[in-house]
Specification:
Layout: E1 3-10, H1 16-27, E2 35-42, E3 48-50, H2 63-69, E4 71-78, E5 81-86, E6 93-97, E7 99-102, H3 113-121, H4 130-137, H5 139-148, E8 156-160, H6 161-166, H7 168-175, E9 182-186, E10 196-198, H8 201-211, E11 217-222, E12 227-237, E13 240-243, E14 247-250, H9 258-263, E15 277-279, H10 286-303, E16 307-316, E17 321-328, H11 346-365
Parallel strand pairs: 1-2, 1-7
Antiparallel strand pairs: 2-3, 3-4, 4-5, 5-6, 8-11, 9-10, 9-11, 12-13, 12-14, 12-16, 14-15, 16-17
């Protein structure tokens, strides 16, 4: 019997459209001999819609028209099963779902929001849990955890918008303890949204103000100037992790920007991260390759990721030092292109991700989450409560 896989994509995020690209790619590469695919579009105003037409990326060129094509639905449990119910009279079950597969990018979605929703429903789902997702979305928390695991990261500082408003000079003095040039990032955005480079104080102020348009929490870190950008993908869970080949990524801007990732080459834009200029496998010294693989595994284990992630590294050509830049919990295009040279086709990668999600659910289902004893049975108002 085929499994029904529900793909959630879209969401209230600056990466809404990138999520659509990644999800439709995945949907059209699922093994239809094993799975029935159910596309569920999450609109920017946080409503769920279902339509078989959502398997086509061209449908989303006009988002308002795409919504009209679909049926607004609710995701809920009925008789122990996850179902899609039509959200208007006559209410009826449209689809039953065995496993959810979120392909969402960015704040309000990938950051543990959807993982938490699916945990609350108590259903199997693919990719990482709430904890890994929350830490993975916050570049600052991520650096703290990864650094604690013994993995090298660039020197950095961070601050909140309230700090900047209260004492701009103090914040500028703190971040300028790191020599220019500096890279400024919204802490919880992805796809290089809101990122900029500053070479002096004037540019720093401008880039901070631009970043604050996207987030209240800002990361400032040193720039590796003689840079080689390297990425690797990790697949699995804490019982076993696999590593993809390493890629070198080329960008036309000073940093690998949103434009480089998703808008270069016109038609190539629909390929998402797969359209970026790259070389796989990267030309690397054996020692650097082994160090990067070791750092990637340590980071994956530290965050307890599951499913597939992409981890971005920076190699300083002058010093030959590797720095972990960031870990992407639900990477663009699910990093399928990093696995092809390992002989793992996209269809098989997706199959593995689903299997990992089911195993994760089964393992968690064995753990105690409540007690038979009900403390409220003997509760007598506030009598006996410690003060």
């Amino acid at each position: 019997m085929k499994l029904n896989i529900g793909f959630i994509f879209g969401g209230n995020s600056t990466e809404h459209e990138i999520s659509i690209i990644s999800a439709v790619q995945a949907i059209n590469n699922m093994d239809t001999d094993k799975y029935n695919v159910i596309p569920i579009y999450l609109s920017k105003d946080s409503k769920f819609y279902y339509s078989e037409e959502y398997k086509k990326v061209e449908v989303f060129k006009d988002l308002k028209a795409a919504i009209k094509l679909g049926t607004e639905v609710l995701l809920t449990k009925k008789d122990g099963e996850l179902v899609l119910i039509k959200d208007s009279f006559p209410f009826k079950v449209l689809k039953k779902i065995d496993v959810m597969f979120p392909v969402l990018h960015g704040y309000n979605t990938e950051d543990g929001t959807i993982a938490g929703f699916l945990e609350m429903l108590g259903v199997p789902y693919c990719e990482s849990d709430i904890y890994a997702s929350t830490i993975g979305q916050d570049k600052i928390l991520q650096k703290m955890v990864i650094k604690e695991s013994g993995v090298r990261v660039c020197e950095y500082r961070y601050f909140y918008e309230s700090d900047y408003q209260q004492d701009q000079d103090k914040v500028l003095k703190m971040v300028m303890e790191i020599p220019f040039p500096l890279i400024i990032k919204p802490s919880r955005q992805g796809s290089s949204v809101g990122i900029g480079v500053a070479h002096n104080k004037e540019e720093l102020i401008k880039k901070i103000e631009e970043a604050l348009e996207y987030d209240e929490k800002i990361l400032v870190e040193e720039v590796v100037e003689d840079l080689k950008e390297l990425n690797i993908s990790v697949l699995g869970d804490n019982t076993s992790y696999e590593l993809s080949d390493i890629e070198e990524v080329y960008g036309s801007d000073e940093i690998l920007s949103y434009k480089d990732k998703y808008m270069s080459g016109g038609k190539g834009a629909s390929k998402g991260m797969a359209s970026t200029g790259r070389k796989i496998p990267a030309d690397l010294d054996k020692k650097i390759k082994e160090e990067m693989e070791d750092m990637a595994l340590k980071a994956a284990r530290a965050l307890n990721i599951s499913g597939v992630v992409r981890i971005d590294f920076m190699l300083d050509r002058k010093t030959n030092k590797l720095y972990l830049n960031e870990l992407n919990i639900i990477p663009g295009s699910l990093s399928f292109y990093l696995w092809k040279t390992k002989g793992l086709e996209y269809k098989d990668l997706l199959d593995k991700i689903v299997s990992i999600g089911i195993r994760k659910f089964q393992n968690k289902d064995k753990k105690l989450s409540s007690f038979e004893t009900n403390v409220l049975e003997s509760f007598n108002g506030t009598k006996g409560v410690k003060k």
